[in-house]
Design brief:
By secondary structure, this protein is α/β, with parallel strands linked by helices. The protein has 14 helices and 20 strands. Strand 16 and strand 17 form a beta hairpin.
Length: 411
């Protein structure tokens, strides 16, 4: 089983089972464990379960206990979330995050302790100067760039060239940066990334908004690909939150956003990002054209020019989450919600208040008193994935020594 790199153990005690044998096997594998027996009175299975599980508790080995029949609802409702959490924990071990640049704009909540990550999550951090993206961008083969430029013109709903900020040249350089970053990830074995961008790249080169739109998604001009979680402003805990959400959901695309505004009365979070958001959320479709065809490329307001993406995220269930620390100890805010389409008048009012600073935005209705959210939430950034994954995240937190903070009145 060790050679097969199992990620969880299902210890079935169908009858009286010598408990120390179960304990030895569990300790030898040292993976998240379920101890189970049936409800049959004829088997003495409950005795075996309690003897083995009680011994595990005495030695401090965390596990869960199930007394039910195969095929019972508990398998889907309780055990599958546990196994998904266990798999995520195992797959985090040995992951590498590429940290391009350092703290951005004085955002302390984006900083983290790499050695705490190594100890608690098993994740390594490869710190790379973000100017390496710029250097490598110049070296990308023109054929790849031309192909991506043609693809961009074909796929996106519109490109608002203005001959000043957003030109063919600035857009091409953004595409070069994306391809360069993709190449660096592959060469250095980076599983997910956090890129500083502001202010150096956004002011003096180009913002990395195209990368933020495409990196976390499952496609680009070169075809289908594995999503690569990417946070902006070098926010490490956001990137790790995205990677966790990606894994518990089976590899789904993830988003990164600012907590920009809250509507307390309607319990809606307004979640834009500064120019790039995972394009998959524009349509929630497996067909890239369905998503990109809803996205406008508009001129960036940053001094470096280039494009930002503009769209309103499609409606649907979503789980928002964020790792953050209180006095050095990790917590995870878990906020299930529903992506919604704002009423026309509400969207128009929001756009008017934002003025010329229009950005890709997700609107999420949540089941938590937003005064509580504002009072407890530990960052200005939040991450999200489609679907409801609350149970998985709570179980994973238990496995990782993180305190789960579920912000929803229904959980």
């Amino acid at each position: 089983l060790k050679d097969a790199q199992v990620e969880a153990l299902f210890a079935h005690t169908p009858c009286w089972t010598t408990p120390n044998v179960v304990v030895r096997a569990v300790q030898h594998l040292d993976v998240p464990t379920v101890v189970m027996t049936s409800k049959s009175a004829a088997t003495h299975g409950t005795v075996g379960l309690l003897a083995a599980a009680g011994a595990l508790s005495q030695i401090g080995f965390d596990h869960i206990r199930v007394r039910d029949d195969f095929g019972a609802p508990i398998f889907e409702e309780e055990l599958m979330p546990y196994f998904r959490a266990a798999s995520t924990k195992a797959r985090l071990q040995g992951r590498v995050m590429g940290l391009f640049g350092g703290r951005s704009l004085g955002i302390d909540t984006g900083t983290f302790d790499p050695m705490q990550w190594r100890a608690q999550f098993g994740v390594d951090v490869d710190h790379i100067d973000q100017l390496e993206i710029v250097r490598r961008a110049e070296l990308v083969e023109q054929e790849r760039v031309d192909k991506m430029m043609s693809w961009t013109h074909e796929q996106f709903a519109s490109i608002a060239f203005d001959d000043e900020k957003l030109t063919e040249d600035t857009l091409e350089f953004q595409l070069r940066c994306y391809l360069a970053n993709k190449d660096i990830n592959a060469e250095r074995g980076l599983d997910f990334i956090a890129v500083k961008c502001m202010p150096e790249l956004s002011d003096h080169f180009v913002p990395q908004c195209i990368s933020a739109a495409l990196m976390p998604g499952p496609y680009d001009s070169e075809g289908q690909k594995q999503p690569c979680s990417m946070s902006c402003e070098a926010d490490g805990d956001a990137a790790l939150s995205m990677e966790i959400l990606k894994e518990v959901s089976g590899g789904a695309p993830t988003l990164f956003a600012d907590v920009s505004h809250v509507d307390e009365e309607k319990r809606i979070l307004y979640l834009p990002n500064c120019g790039g958001m995972c394009s998959w959320f524009a349509g929630r479709s497996d067909d890239p054209s369905d998503n990109l065809g809803r996205i406008e490329l508009r001129p960036s307001l940053r001094p470096g020019g280039g494009a930002i993406t503009y769209f309103v995220a499609a409606p649907g269930p979503i789980t928002l989450a964020r790792l953050y620390r209180v006095a050095g100890e990790y917590r995870m805010a878990i906020v299930p919600g529903e992506g919604v389409t704002l009423a026309d008048e509400d969207l128009a009012s929001f756009a008017e208040e934002r003025g010329k600073h229009q950005l890709p935005t997700a609107f999420v209705e949540v089941g938590v008193d937003l005064s509580r959210f504002i009072g407890e939430f530990g960052s200005n950034h939040i991450s999200g994935v489609a679907g409801v994954w609350v149970r998985e995240l709570v179980l994973l937190c238990r496995m990782l020594g993180v305190e789960p903070i579920v912000m929803d009145e229904n959980f």
